[in-house]
Design brief:
single chain; 105 residues; alpha+beta; Translation Initiation Factor IF3; elongated; UPF0145_dom_sf; UPF0145_YbjQ-like
Length: 105
């Protein structure tokens, strides 16, 4: 399945628009990750553990989006948007949401 942030795939005209599809994943923050992240914040550098969580959440949300598009008979999703948001008490959860238009090319 082709997944693109653009509104078209060059050389592959859209034959049918099947509708908006979404994928959402909510991940809990881990106290150990928070401690290591705060140490990284103090001394500088990247927070590998948080990056792993972001990457895993994004991949899971995209997989859900693709599954929903496939169920509609799509062979591509165009105009994909990826959003990240903290939710819950004191931002203790991370939500990754993706949306796009399922199409047949």
């Amino acid at each position: 399945m082709l997944v693109s942030t653009t509104s078209l795939i060059e050389g592959r005209p859209v034959q049918r628009y099947l509708g908006v599809v979404t994928g959402e994943v909510i991940l809990g923050a881990n106290i150990v990750r928070d401690i290591f992240a705060s140490i990284t914040d103090i001394f500088g550098g990247r927070s590998g553990k948080y990056e792993e969580v972001l990457s895993r959440g994004r991949e899971q949300a995209l997989q859900e989006l693709e599954a929903k598009a496939h169920a509609l008979g799509a062979n591509a999703v165009i105009g994909v948007d990826i959003d990240y948001e903290t939710i819950g008490a004191r931002g203790s959860m991370l939500m990754v949401s993706v949306s796009g238009t399922a199409v047949v090319l």
